[in-house]
Every structure is written in C-alpha cells, then in structure tokens.
Amino acid sequence: MTVQGGRIAAVTAPGNGSGTGAADATTADCDGLIMLPALVDLHTHLREPGDTASETIASGTRAAAHGGYSDVLAMANCVPVTDSPERVRHIIERAARTASCRVHPVGAVTKGLAGRELAPLDAMAAAGALMFSDDGVCVDDPTLLVQALEAARRTGTLVAQHAQCPRLAERGQVNAGAAAHATGLPPWPATGEEAIVARDVVLAGATGGRLHICHVSTAGTVEIVRWAKSRGWPVTAEVTPHHLLLTDLLTHDTDPLHKVNPPLRSAEDVAALRAALGDGTIDAVATDHAPHTASSKDRHWCEAPFGMLGLETALPVVAEALGAGGEPDWGLVATVMSAGPARIAGLADVAGRPLRAGEPATFTLVDPRADWRVDRTESISASDNTPFHGMTFRHRVVATMVEGCVTADIDHRLGSRRRACGR
Ligand SMILES: [Zn+2]
C-alpha cells in the first residue's frame, strides 16, 4: 500500500513492487495483516464536557484510533447536554484542537434530555449535528418523537432511540429470568425494549423520518426490525460488541463491570443478534463506549452506573463473535463496522470507503495472529471498565491511518507518517 497526499496511490500484492517511488510517498508493509476501511462508531460517550475524570475528547478519541476508528459520533449526554447549536459547535471546535479521530456531535432530541420540550433540531443540524438522540434515556412521549422524526426528515438527519420503556424497565438491573432470579436484582425485561421499538418503527413509517435503534439486545427486537424493513420503513439498527459475545450468565456474579444498559441477555438472544448482523437486519456494530471512573464503578451493583468500555476491543470482539473461533467474513465486518455506519450517519463520502487507488488513505490494520490478552491496566481510555479484562483474542488492531495521517501504530509499521502529521 502506497500513500501520497493523503490518498491511496497504489495497492500492491505482497512481494509485488514497492509503490510509486515518489519522494513524498509512504509505503506501508501490510504483509500478514488484514486491511480494513477504518471503522465508524455511531455510539460513543466521550464525557466531555462534564465528566472529564472518566474520559475526555482527547483520551476517548485516542482509544478510538487504537481501536481502528476514523470517525465517532459523540452522544449528547454530557454536562451541559449537547442540546443547542452553540453546544454542537463547542464540541466540533474542541475536537478540532484535541481529537485523534473525527468527531461528529449528536444533538439531544429534548432539552436537557428531560423528555418534555423538543431541542432546536433544525438549528443543531445546521451547526453540524448528524444525528439526534437522548441516549441514556428513552424519548418516551410519542408526540415528541413524531416531531423529532419530522425534523430529521426535513434536515436529512436521523433520530437514534434508546429503546427502554420507563415503566416496563423501571429500576431494571439485569436480564429478566435466570439472571434476576439468581441475583435477586430487579428484572429488565425484553418487553421493555420491544414495546418501544414496535411503537417507534410505526412512527418512522408514518412520518418518513429516519429512525435508528440503539443497542438492540433481544431476539424479539430483531423480529420487529425485520418486519419494519419488510414494509420499507426508514429504520436501521445497531448492536454492541458486548451483546454479540457476552451473556447474562456473567451477571450472576454481580460484578459491576458486567452492568450495562440494556443488560447482557440470554444465549438465544446473542445467537439471534449474530444472525441478524449476518442477514442485514441489523445494519451496524456500535460500541456504546461508556467510560466510568474506578471510584464510581467499583461499588455495590445497584449503586454503580451502567456502561462498559468498547472502542479498543470492538474489532477483536466482533471478529471472535462472527468468526466462531476462526476467521470472520471480513467483508461483513467491513460492512457492519465501517461502510454501514458511515452510510447511516451520512458520512459515506468520507468514511467507509473501499481501499483502492484514488480513495482517501483511511484504513486500519489488523494482526490476525496477535493472541491479544486484554489488560485493563493498559487501557488507552482514561477509564478501565472493560468487561474483557483477562480475555484473549486472536485479532488485534495494530495501526490506523486517517487521510494519510497515522493515528495509532503499536508496531511502528507506519511510524514515519506520524511525525509528518504531528499527532
Ligand atoms: Zn443507550
């Protein structure tokens, strides 16, 4: 692979030449590595402004770059909430100064995420918000959601819903059924997700506004999304890496590292989510990267916040979940982690592009024989609340390049360009 002027100049097969020979060109030796278009995350919590002890735009995007990402969408539940064009512009400006990948703000659907009054969606879209979401809480009022979907249609954006019925999943802590019985903790039932998704896809169909379902976690939700798509309604869906690999059996130990919202589900749900990713019912993998300081997370289960890290481990986890111990379908991985989310976010002209001459040099390199043991003390994120600590993964991201700039390079394969880009 030869890179020149931020673009791919040539892609050569192993042992077939060494690039253009131009003085300003860089040739990356990718032999033995898997090369993918750099990843796009639709669902990242960067915590800045507000909770910079758990993450900042700088630390979170460094973690993203080390996970293979070129682009992340930054959720709105900061303090203050991203619910005005000024807040959207603030995040764009802050990211321009400190980020290691491209950051795209998500605007809140309702002011202060309070669920009572619509935020100025048109003005936020004009300021650069690509998507709207109250993630962390559900937009429960259907009349507000209808207004938001109509604004999304007007502005060419979309609404991402955290599907959690406040009444059905009230106080829910772990998956209903065996996990709730084993732990005695309040159940978070599948119906709490599915009832909202069923309602919302109907509203998307009626308004024509694009709806995206965040972190799908149940087999029933997969069926509803499949049905909505069969009717031609403008609905897309994402699944997290952790919901593709981990089950609710882990929550029996009540270790808060396994506390996440929606909760880890059954093995049957995990199988349905994997199948849905394979058949296109679910469009994208999104991390729901949710950093928390050790002091906030290391408490009794009920007092600890929901959420786990995701950016640094997403690619190996997805490869493991889809590869069943062998190599996954890398074309599928590229679709669900790069081209698919880029298309949903409206970034398809700059992200998720095919790797051929003339395209931006925006890619990630994966070592397929890394046997990488995840160690939370080596976390690039400012937090270390990963549920994958101690697990060994066959694959590991070793380098990421964005438009010719090296943003991560653990093996120093691309080292010469790092200096040129000043990162
Ligand atoms: Zn959420």
Automatic annotation (TrEMBL):
Gene behind this protein: pyrC
Species: Streptomyces albipurpureus
Main function: Catalyzes the reversible cyclization of carbamoyl aspartate to dihydroorotate.
Cofactor needs: Zn(2+)
Sequence positions that bind Zn(2+) 2: 135, 162, 215
Binding site for Zn(2+) 1: 43, 45, 135, 288
Binding residue positions for substrate: 45-47, 77, 261, 292, 306-307
Enzyme class: hydrolase
NCBIfam families: pyrC_multi (TIGR00857)
Membrane-spanning parts: none
Top-level taxon: Bacteria
Keywords in alphabetical order: Hydrolase, Metal-binding, Pyrimidine biosynthesis, Zinc
Lineage: Bacteria, Bacillati, Actinomycetota, Actinomycetes, Kitasatosporales
Active site: 288
Name of the protein: Dihydroorotase
Domain Dihydroorotase catalytic residues, every copy: 34-218
